[in-house]
Design brief:
The chain has eleven helices and eight strands. With 278 residues, it is an alpha+beta fold. The protein has a three-stranded antiparallel sheet with strand order 1-2-3.
Length: 278
């Protein structure tokens, strides 16, 4: 049984903007009933070129419905350029998080938006121009590469969580592993790792505090939460979640899927984040 946030449950039980916009300026359809998930997004622009209305029809699970509903709320009032900058991570964050196995639902929302914008502009959809690597779900290599780069995916299982690729017959797993290696090799060439091989405890604490201040605290405070660094003992980072985060049922998911992931990316890959005992 998946653990959903209150906001996911709300958008699932009371979805906003269900249907189709009449005389839409842009329509995007992604997925298929055969694959188990399908989404149709339509929008209408006002005289200033901003999205005045947006509606969706979807076939899928609670996460798919909630992600689609949230997306329509997020894009209203935005220009197409502003809307195009919305990522699947933004959709998941708006909902207070999604189970990692359901992140592909937020990806589907982002892709439907891209398709609708491309439809309005009369331009081809870049991700659709790639080579299909997963026949079961029609996922291209370009979609897989983007997911790996943007969400720092490290395994085929994570690729499946974000794109559904590899979640069917499994014949594409070898190809997905090859793409994973290629992307990470390319990233290492483009973005050399300047972190020192060995960090003193003082250096480690300083870098952890910087990441907490720069990225993690601002994100948690948006939802009424906060985080404090309690101790650093070798690779073990002990923190205390405060405010709404301290009583949230998803606190362990926040620690492992967000806090630990950020610190491993930007400080040291071997770090293990634990919550201070009461």
């Amino acid at each position: 049984m998946w653990e959903y946030t209150d906001k996911v449950r709300d958008h699932f039980m009371n979805p906003r903007n269900v249907g189709e916009v009449e005389n839409a300026d842009g329509v995007g359809e992604v997925g298929s009933l055969a694959c188990g998930d399908a989404l149709k997004l339509s929008f209408k622009l006002d005289t200033d070129g901003r999205i005045a209305d947006a509606k969706f029809k979807t076939f899928g699970c609670a996460s798919a419905i909630a992600s689609s509903s949230a997306l329509t709320e997020m894009i209203k009032g935005l220009t197409l350029d502003e809307a195009a900058r919305i990522s699947n991570e933004d959709i998941a964050e708006y909902l207070g998080g999604l189970p990692k196995e359901k992140m592909h639902c937020s990806v589907m929302g982002r892709e439907a938006l891209e398709a609708a914008i491309a439809n309005h502009r009369g331009t081809p959809l870049p991700m659709a121009q790639g080579e299909v690597v997963c026949e079961c779900f029609g996922v291209t290599d370009l979609e897989v590469r983007r997911a790996i780069q943007e969400s720092n995916l490290k395994s085929v299982e994570e690729i499946t969580n974000f794109t559904k690729a590899g979640g069917g017959c499994g014949k594409c797993h070898e190809r997905l592993e090859a793409i994973l290696r290629e992307v990470h090799q390319d990233l290492q060439k483009i973005i050399p790792d300047h972190r020192p091989a060995r960090l003193t405890n003082i250096q480690k604490i300083k870098m952890i505090e910087e990441v907490l201040d720069r990225e993690i605290r601002p994100a948690l405070r948006k939802d009424g939460g906060d985080i404090e660094l309690v101790d650093v003992d070798g690779d073990f980072v002990v923190v205390s979640l405060r405010g709404a985060c301290g009583t949230c049922k998803k606190s362990q998911t926040t620690l492992k899927e967000y806090v630990e992931k950020k610190l491993r990316e930007q400080v040291l890959e071997s770090l293990i984040v634990e919550e201070a005992k009461s």
